[in-house]
Design a protein that fits this description.
By secondary structure, the chain is of the alpha/beta class. The protein has 2 domains: about 150 residues; about 200 residues, Rossmann fold, CATH 3.40.50.2000. About 40% of the residues lie in helices and about 20% in strands. The protein is built from 16 helices and 14 strands. An 8-stranded mixed sheet has the order 3-4-2-1-5-6-8-7, with helices on one face. A 6-stranded mixed sheet has the order 11-12-10-9-13-14, sandwiched between helices. α11 links the parallel β13 and β14. α8 crosses α14, α12 packs antiparallel against α13 and α13 packs across α14. The radius of gyration is 22 Å and the shape is globular. The chain binds 2'-deoxy-thymidine-beta-L-rhamnose.
Length: about 375
Amino acid sequence: MSTSLSLDLFCKVVDNFGDIGICWRLARQLQREHGIAVTLWVDDMRTFQRICPQVDMAAERQQVDHIAVRHWTSQEGEFSAADVADIVIEFFGCDIPPGYIAAMAQRPERPVWLNLEGLSAEEWVEGCHSLPSRHPRLPLTKYFFFPGFTEKTGGLMYERGLEAERLAFISDPAAVAAFLSSLGVRQTEAAAMKVSLFCYPYAPVAELFAAWCGGEQPVTCLVPEGVASDAVAHFLGQAAVPGAVRSEGALTVRVLPFVPQQDYDKLLWSCDLNFVRGEDSWVRAQWAGKSFIWHIYAQDENLHHKKLRAFLQRYAAGGALDDFSLCWNGVKGGASAGDWPALWQALAMAMPEISAKSSEWQQKILANGDLAANLTKFCASLR
Ligand code: TRH
């Protein structure tokens, strides 16, 4: 694809970090690896700033890491055909301004228009990936682009240098120690089994903490600020602010600052087990080569249970991970349902085997190429 292409990526932040997390990652990869001039339109600068501290929350327009960032403040506004990029992506069905859509139809060479969807391991995704949808009135067609785990989907985001960067980091114990120390983690805490915790507030964190407290294995649980705050504060006996720490039995819980997105990978690489959630952290955990437990975003009518089972079936890591994951997500069942000490013991025993299989899984999901490359190829095929 030519280096002169422009791309407008529209992101509405719902109530979490994932939407901007995914769009920010994609924007940078499209710019770095494909030479595309990306403009990221984002409505919530505060959330953006949490994952990317360089962002100036007050700026209407700014340049961050070679990406033009625009604060998307309203659906109003006049746009001309010259304002429209070669490729237009709306993330997760966010409504782009009607004036912009009208301008898209005025552009002599129509832009390629994609709706980038959320990730699911379910089979129906293959049938919907790349489907066109004609605009009811204007001469425009929008295409649905689905990330996914098979060759009939758009694949997953994976930057070119990621594995080399991970290997360099984990093979340098001093770098790992310095990173953990920069987050306030003490050496004694780092010597225990290290677990990062990122989940929704309704995860059974208190039950898991109790199992860890009473277990044989020393565990250090590292929790970024704002995650499961009530359960963490309850365990700590104080507010869950960065630096807060408490040990009981075999468990130490430490609150970390919420790290910039680029450091979040390092946190995953530094730990032995990662609890992740939503979409972006879940995908990053799959590249981290460690065992992970996914907390899925809850949906009405327990639709997310189906999605969770679809993933566990594809991932095929076996009984202990499945049992733990189902219970962590409130899907009851299995002999150990609710018995957190038993669930934990089984998972801890299975972890070396689960981690050992991770590179096999990575090869499988990468066989289809990465999402940014697939997306640019798809756009080229439509131009
Ligand atoms: O924030 P999330 O719950 O986002 C979710 C999903 O995107 C989901 O699909 C969507 O429907 C829902 O929001 C509304 O979890 P996710 O996707 O893992 O995104 C978190 C981002 O935050 C990710 O880019 C990693 C980043 N992060 C940091 O940068 N620093 C941190 O300390 C932590 C814990 C996360």
